[in-house]
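Contributing new records

If you add data, match the layout below exactly. Sequence lines come first and carry their own label; structure lines follow with theirs. Keep one chain per record. Anything else will be rejected by the validation script.
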Amino acid sequence: MIFAAIADWAEQDEFPVDFMCTELQVSRSGYYAWRTRPVSHRALADIDLTARIRRIHAAGRGNPGVRRVRAGLAAEGIRCGLGRIWRLMQAADLQGRHPKAWRRTTIKGEKPVSAPDLISRRFTAAAPNVAWCGDITYVRTWTGWAYLAIMWNQVCQPLTWCCAA
């Protein structure tokens, strides 16, 4: 990391290499050895793996996260740890999407019958007690689910409600 910083500064001609090596307490010969050293096998493998990860991520329309990318790599015959994939995805600025958890909340009976629309979607009434509406919902509480039913007259404000645990 220090040698990379020295190389960046040396390219910009900000400071001489001797000065930077002295100030950062590294040897000049170590810096020049680092510059001439070939790329490691691990770094080359990471470059190839990053290209594969990008391809898998793009094929999944940007959805797959670390585990799905790992499964895609396994399908190609490449075994790799989650940590390495996570690190390479971070470096490549790739992120999976996290969909909201979906829960099935309404379960139909054995022979469901749809309720008829008796007011034909006319939501105003000429007088009180001509048309009533109602709805039911459920709210999660500390002790479980509470079911809330509301009924109201089409002319007035909500009149009655009922709550059952």
